[in-house]
Amino acid sequence: MNPAVPHDAAGPAHAPLTRAELRVAELAAQGRVNREIAEQLFITPSTVEQHLTRVFKKLGISGRDFLPTSLSVVRGEDCGAGRKDG
Known about the structure:
The protein is an all-alpha fold.
């Protein structure tokens, strides 16, 4: 099994990320450390750690190195389904 991809890429195998989890994950994927993320979002470093722990579990990954790939999969699911244009 590839740890960079959610357990079942063909379907919604993971719970959706909350807005807070997604914001933290996106900053971590950009290479920011927990302290920088905490300062930017006005939360504690402990809260950043808690969000990332939940993100890793929901996406089925083992660490922040896999975030860019996994987040692009999540964004692809979010962008394509149920979009109403015009």
